[in-house]
């Protein structure tokens, strides 16, 4: 996208749009998508009838393999991509009929860094707010709040190109919050940053959500989604293949995997435990898959009888990753091959 042109047009439109009624904002879903379809000029269907609701105040994950339709969906919701059919509303404001008012409710953090690297963070935030009609004095006050929340206040007057990758990502979030959006959309916000920086960003996002902002997150870090989000939808090849509360969806998994750290060395022959799969990950680690309903005490008893003493245990893999692979794994390669390049939202 071209930031200046998009922001300028959005600003002009926003200034003329009537504000939606407060009662409507309170009662309606933060995002409501109905039978959304998108067919590109090459006749590839990127979205094939997507429907979902995001409740106000939610922290919602939108997951899917590359080419599944995530960025196309975000592009349509943020009015950067034209839909082919269906409807989108933001807090009850129909996107097609009242685009300007709907856009005033959204903050967007795209995948790609799209600010001027030769501007200072303070100027980036204040100028962005100015595009949306925020008076300069108020914009300066908000910029201080957002830069402090992003731990960038001490960098406010440095050239943005000198910031680290993680700082630039946090600057993108701070910029999006300058208009105090009711709905914040984050498209791969922690891509390419190390785990320490990522966890710091998680804290910031939790604070933003706790203050009342609804957040929609796309991410390839499934541990991130499981840690942050309460509800999710998984999209694959242009269709929603699963959606609902995170805990309820993870509870559908009927198999759990654990790694057991063993005192001493594992015997050459492992015991047989009906319904489980035991493998030696190495001489001191036992890899076990077992039904969720199985009593762990039974497993430990059989291992004890075989002279195997468990020192500690840990979950073998991220549960959300297991669910994701089950739902999308067979089609992921085909999806990536057939889908057109998605626009950067």
Structure explained in plain terms:
Keywords: ATP-binding, Nucleotide-binding, Signal, Transport. This is ABC transporter ATP-binding protein. It comes from Lysobacter arenosi. Residues 31-262 form the ABC transporter domain. GO terms for molecular function: ATP binding. The protein is α/β, with parallel strands linked by helices and 345 residues long. It folds into 2 domains: 3-247, P-loop containing nucleotide triphosphate hydrolases (Rossmann fold, 3-Layer(aba) Sandwich), CATH 3.40.50.300; 255-320, Alpha-L RNA-binding motif (Alpha-Beta Plaits). 36% of the residues lie in helices and 25% in strands. The chain contains 13 helices and 14 strands. It has helices spanning 3-16, 22-27, 70-77, 99-103, 121-131, 136-149, 165-176, 195-210, 222-228, 246-250, 296-305, 319-328, 332-338, and strands at residues 31-39, 45-54, 59-63, 85-90, 93-94, 106-109, 183-187, 214-218, 231-236, 239-245, 255-262, 277-282, 285-291, 310-315. It has a 6-stranded mixed sheet, sandwiched between helices. α5 (121-131) packs across α6 and α5 runs parallel beside α7 (165-176). The protein is globular. The relative contact order is 0.15.
């Amino acid at each position: 996208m071209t930031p200046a042109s998009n922001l300028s047009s959005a600003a002009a439109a926003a200034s003329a749009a009537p504000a939606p009624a407060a009662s409507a904002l309170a009662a309606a879903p933060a995002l409501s998508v109905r039978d959304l379809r998108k067919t590109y000029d090459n006749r590839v269907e990127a979205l094939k009838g997507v429907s979902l609701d995001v409740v106000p105040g939610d922290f919602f994950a939108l997951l899917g393999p590359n080419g599944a339709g995530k960025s196309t969906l975000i592009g349509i919701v943020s009015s950067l991509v034209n839909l082919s059919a269906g409807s989108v509303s933001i807090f009850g404001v129909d996107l097609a009929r009242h685009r300007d008012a709907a856009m005033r409710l959204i903050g967007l953090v795209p995948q790609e860094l799209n600010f001027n690297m030769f501007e200072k963070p303070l100027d980036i935030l204040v100028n962005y707010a100015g595009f949306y009609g925020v008076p300069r004095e108020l914009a300066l006050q908000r910029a201080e709040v957002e830069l402090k929340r992003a731990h960038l206040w001490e960098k406010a007057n440095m050239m943005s190109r000198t910031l680290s990758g993680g700082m630039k990502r946090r600057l993108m979030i701070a910029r999006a919050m300058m208009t105090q959006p009711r709905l914040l959309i984050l498209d791969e916000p922690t891509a390419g940053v190390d785990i320490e920086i990522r966890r710091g960003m998680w804290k910031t996002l939790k604070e933003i959500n706790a203050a009342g902002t609804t957040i929609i997150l796309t991410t390839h870090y499934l541990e991130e989604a499981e840690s942050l989000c309460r509800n999710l939808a998984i999209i694959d090849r242009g269709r929603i293949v699963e959606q609902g509360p995170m805990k309820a969806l993870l509870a559908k998994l009927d198999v759990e995997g654990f790694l057991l750290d063993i005192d001493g060395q594992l015997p050459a022959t492992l015991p047989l435990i009906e319904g489980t799969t035991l493998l030696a990950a190495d001489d001191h680690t036992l890899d076990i898959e077992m039904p969720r309903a199985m009593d762990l005490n039974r497993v430990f008893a059989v291992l004890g009888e075989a002279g195997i003493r468990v020192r500690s245990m840990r979950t073998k893999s991220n549960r959300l990753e297991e669910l994701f692979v089950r739902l999308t794994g067979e089609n992921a390669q085909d999806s990536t091959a057939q889908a057109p390049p998605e626009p950067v939202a």
